Every structure is written in structure tokens, then in C-alpha cells.
């Protein structure tokens, strides 16, 4: 910025760069008010008289901009008749007609044009879900494309600006190919790996899952003419078959093994596990696989393993209801977050080896929890809440955590055995 508040080209570029950062995503979705007016704050006669050389330099720099074809926008000049300095012609304001001109000023022209072109391509492909969009439609005249453009005007891609501007061309073409194929086969019932689209595999789908969910959700809301959410389930949005939700369990009792043909370690879809003819006396639900594999035989017990946060499946298993259930997770905030979620489905589940005494007993085996779980956590007992509070406030050390596999197994075995004599656990 020049003296006395007047803006030189460098200051305007800085101002436009700030406007770009705050607005370019909205601009891609046709938001914003145009033209954009940048006031240059030309000097008064007194200011000019005090800094005549500086004002002349300021005028020359704007004159160079005004005659530079690479600098877009309309520079508006004003004339002033000053008693002491005579008639002066001064740059007064800069008018920019749209985002593309701002992009040039801030060095983002190539990215803007690429994102704009790709957003237009997406709108053409997505605007009419019942149409098979071919190359003729994509390259049609503006008059022929008018219905598509009108139908697609509500689609928003600004949140994907960086990807649209920077993604390799092959990835963008793959995205279009996936959207076209899903339009033509809205309820294929295929698994992801079965999609007959060149270059598309589970890795590509995984890397672009969020983008596909957003785009397909927008498309379905537009087709239904509603603002209601379309959900975040990619399989449901794309009409694809999901892989079975598998659960691994161990039968810790010979009679339970006999009930399922002698099998002691079973991995099967949740609905098949739920249908097993089991009547266990109690169940242990453990966060990690190796912990479950380490369990010894226990009278009447089963052990369900390695669900992490996906504990909703336990609500679908009828032979868990009304049985004493013990949850054993890592002694960190995420372990308690999983317990909190589990109690939404099994309200009477007891925690196991997730107490302060266990934590302090294994001080030499503590690790650091890099990213604690977000709270508050509902459904915890006062004792459990006290441990969580201690972890979050660094009562025992900075971001303490104890992985369940690190707990001394003889100590753990004693605590597990204690659950066999009482239904009342830590709750």
C-alpha cells in the first residue's frame, strides 16, 4: 500500500489474494456479487503536494497496468482540478467482472480455468440422472445444453475445488466414467471390485469415497427435488452390494463348541453369527484380536473380538441379550468412547480391566495417545468417568494410554476369572 492509504498494484494483488482464498470455492458454484469494485483511494491535493514524486510513481504503475493486456479488468480514472497543481488524472477504482479476472491477478488462472471446465463437465454428466450422457452431449451447442445446465445449476462442486484444479486428467476422466456408469446401472448390485470400468478398483474408490458420496448425494437430492439428506452410505447411493459385515468369535466352553459342530473359532457374517444356536452364560467383548485369541477356556463363555468402534453389530445378536457381557478395551479415551457407544446397544455391559488400579499397575508400559477421543462420553459409570477425566487432564502424565495387549496376562487372567463368580462388574 502506498502512502496516505492509496492502493498500488501490489497492494491490490494482496487484497485480491485474500478475496480469492475466502471466495473461490463459492465462486465456482456461481455465488458472489459481480462486478467486484476495488477502490484505489487516490490522494488529495495536500497529500500529492507532500509526496509529488511518490504520487507520480503510483500513477505510472497504474498506467502500466492499464496498458498491459495481461492484466484484466477495467481501470476507472478520475480528473481533479486542483488550484495549486492544476488538472490531474488519477486512477480511482478497478472493476473486475468475474472470478476469472481475479484468478489472473493472483496467479491462479490455470487452476481456475481447469476447475471451472471440470465443474461444467460434471454438471453436464450429473444434471440428468436418467440420461446416458455421451460425448455428443458433452460437446453440444450452448442452446442444446440449456436444459442440462438449468437442471444442474443447483449442483455444487466448490468444496472439491482443489481436486478439480489439481487432479491428474486420468483421475477426472475416471470420475466421469464412474458417474456415467452408475447412472446407466443405478441398481447393479455389484461389488466394488466387479465394476467393469477401466482403471477403477477398490483402492481408487476408497481414495475418492467422500467425493463420490457428496456427488451422488447431490444428484439424488436433485432428482427427488428435495433438500433432505441422501445419507452417506456409498453402497446405498451407488446401488452397490456391500461386503458382508464379518464378526469373529471364540467358543471358550466345550459344550458351546459342540453346539456348532466342534468349531472353536468362527468368522462369519453378523447375521449368521446371530443365528447360531448358542446359550452362553456370559460373553467377553474385546477391542483387539490378539487379546481375544489369548483367552483360555472359561465355563459357558464366548469371546467376540476386534470390532473397534463398529459395535452396533452386537445389538443384532439375540443370544447376547440378558447375559452378563464384559467389554475390555484399551485404557485410553478411545477405549471409553467405544464403551460409551456400546452401551447404547447393550446398556448393561460391564467394563473389564479399564480402571485406575490397572492403569497405575502398568505404568512402565504406558504409551502416548496422540489424538484423544472427542467428548463428552455418555453412559459411563462415575468410576469410568473419573478415569477418562484423569486421562484428559493429564492427571498421571501427558496423554497417557495403556494398550490392552500390554497388560500382564496373569493379572488379567485373575480379573477375568473374577467375573465368573459375579454378575456385578465395573458399571
UniProtKB/TrEMBL annotation:
Residues 9-216 form the DUF3322 domain. Signal peptide: none annotated. Residues 239-414 form the Wadjet protein JetD C-terminal domain. This is DUF3322 and DUF2220 domain-containing protein. The lineage of its organism: Bacteria, Pseudomonadati, Pseudomonadota, Gammaproteobacteria, Chromatiales.
Amino acid at each position: 500500500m502506498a502512502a496516505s492509504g492509496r492502493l498500488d498494484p501490489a497492494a491490490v494483488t494482496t487484497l485480491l489474494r485474500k478475496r480469492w482464498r475466502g471466495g473461490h470455492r463459492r465462486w465456482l458454484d456461481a455465488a458472489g456479487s459481480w462486478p467486484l469494485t476495488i477502490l484505489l483511494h487516490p490522494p488529495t491535493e495536500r497529500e500529492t503536494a507532500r509526496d509529488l514524486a511518490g504520487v507520480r510513481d503510483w500513477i505510472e504503475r497504474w498506467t502500466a497496468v492499464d496498458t498491459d493486456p495481461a492484466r484484466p479488468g477495467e481501470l476507472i480514472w478520475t480528473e481533479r482540478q486542483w488550484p495549486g497543481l492544476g488538472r490531474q488524472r488519477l486512477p480511482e477504482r478497478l472493476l473486475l467482472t468475474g472470478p476469472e479476472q481475479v484468478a489472473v491477478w493472483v496467479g491462479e488462472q490455470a487452476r481456475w480455468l481447469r476447475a471451472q471446465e471440470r465443474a461444467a463437465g460434471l454438471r453436464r454428466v450429473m444434471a440428468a440422472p436418467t440420461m446416458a450422457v455421451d460425448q455428443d452431449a458433452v460437446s453440444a451447442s450452448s442452446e442444446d445444453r440449456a436444459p442440462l445446465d438449468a437442471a444442474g445449476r443447483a449442483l455444487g462442486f466448490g468444496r472439491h475445488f482443489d481436486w478439480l484444479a489439481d487432479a491428474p486428467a486420468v483421475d477426472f476422466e475416471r470420475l466421469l466414467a464412474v458417474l456415467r456408469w452408475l447412472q446407466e446401472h443405478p441398481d447393479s448390485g455389484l461389488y466394488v471390485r466387479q465394476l467393469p470400468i477401466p482403471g477403477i478398483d477398490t483402492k481408487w474408490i476408497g481414495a475418492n469415497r467422500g467425493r463420490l458420496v457428496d456427488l451422488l448425494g447431490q444428484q439424488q437430492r436433485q432428482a427427488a427435488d428435495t433438500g433432505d439428506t441422501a445419507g452417506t452410505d456409498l453402497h446405498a447411493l451407488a446401488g452397490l452390494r456391500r461386503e458382508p459385515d464379518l464378526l469373529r468369535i471364540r467358543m471358550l466352553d466345550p459344550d458351546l463348541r459342540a453346539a456348532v459342530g466342534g468349531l472353536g473359532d468362527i468368522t462369519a457374517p453378523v447375521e449368521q453369527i446371530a443365528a447360531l444356536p448358542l446359550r452362553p452364560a456370559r460373553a467377553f467383548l474385546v477391542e483387539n484380536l490378539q487379546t481375544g485369541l489369548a483367552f483360555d477356556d472359561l465355563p459357558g463363555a464366548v469371546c467376540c473380538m476386534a470390532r473397534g468402534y463398529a459395535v452396533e453389530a452386537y445389538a443384532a445378536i439375540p443370544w447376547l441379550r440378558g447375559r452378563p457381557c464384559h467389554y475390555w478395551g484399551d485404557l485410553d479415551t478411545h477405549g471409553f468412547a467405544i464403551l460409551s457407544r456400546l452401551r447404547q446397544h447393550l446398556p448393561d455391559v460391564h467394563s473389564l480391566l479399564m480402571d485406575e488400579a490397572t492403569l497405575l499397575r502398568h505404568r512402565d508400559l504406558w504409551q502416548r495417545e496422540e489424538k484423544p477421543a472427542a467428548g463428552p462420553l455418555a453412559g459411563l459409570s462415575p468410576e469410568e468417568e473419573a478415569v477418562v477425566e484423569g486421562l484428559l487432564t493429564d492427571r498421571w502424565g501427558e496423554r497417557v494410554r495403556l494398550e490392552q495387549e500390554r497388560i500382564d496376562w496373569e493379572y488379567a487372567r485373575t480379573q477375568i476369572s473374577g467375573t465368573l463368580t459375579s454378575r456385578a462388574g465395573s458399571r
